[in-house]
Amino acid sequence: MKFLKTKLPGVFIIEPQFFEDHRGFFMESYNKHIFDEAGLSFNFVQDNHSCSKEAGVIRGLHYQLNPNAQTKLVRVATGAVLDVVVDIRKGSPTFSQWIGVILSEHNKRQLFIPKGFAHGFCTLTTDTNLLYKVDEGYCPENDRGIAWNDPDIGIEWPVSSPILSTKDEKHPLLKNTENNFCWEKSS
Fold it and tell me: Is 63 in the active site?
C-alpha cells in the first residue's frame, strides 16, 4: 500500500496494491499491521455502506463532535465519487481548507480521514456504493454537519443543483456550526 500525503495534515490517499487477471482482481483494502507501520493505528469498530442510485447526490459535509468524533477509512466498491474533506480544527493553519479526491471502483483509491475533519462526497455515477470504516459508532446527539455550498469553504463540486437529503439541506455554514475540535501543534 502507498500512503500519499495531502495538503491537509493527517489526511492520506491510500493506493492499495491489487492483483488482476482474467478472473477479476484481489486486493487488501485494510491490513492493521501495514496501517500501524504507517503510523495510522486505529481500532475500527464499525463498517458502513452508503448506496446512491443517482449521479449528482451530495452527502455531507458530516462530522461528530468529541467524544464521539470518528476517524474514517473510505473507499468506493462500485461507481465513483468526488470525496471531500474539510479541516474544521480551530486554530489549524489549514482551517476551512478542503481537498477533493476521485475515489472509484477503477482506481481503488481510499481516503483516510482523522478526527477534526468534515467529510462529504458527490456521486459521479449511478449506483455508487461507498464503504467506510469508523473508529467510533454513530452518536445522534453529536452528529453535526456543514452546508455543502458554504462560500467561505468554496468547494468546487461537479454539480450546481445536487440531490440532497432534507437533513443536508439544513446544515449551517462552518462559521455557525458547533465544533469542539482544536488544532494542536503536534497533530
Answer: no
Residue 135's Cα: distance from chain center in Å? 13
Catalytic annotation present for 49: no
4-39 per-position pLDDT tens digit: 999 999 999 999 998 989 998 998 999 999 999 999
Residue 6's nearest CA partner among 107, 104, 114, 145 is: 114
Whether the model clears a pTM of 0.90, i.e. scores above it, the answer is yes
Q: How far apart are CA 88 and CA 80, in angstroms?
A: 25
* pLDDT per position as a tens digit, 56-77: 999 999 999 999 999 999 999 9
CATH class assigned to 2-176:
mainly beta
Q: Catalytic residue among 63, 119, 132, 171, which?
A: 132
* Per annotation, catalytic residue among 30, 62, 106, 171: 62
Q: Is the dihedral of CA 164, 100, 49, 136 positive or negative?
A: negative
- Do residues 90 and 181 touch, judged by C-beta distance below 8 A? yes
What distance lies between CA 137 and its chain's CA centroid?
16
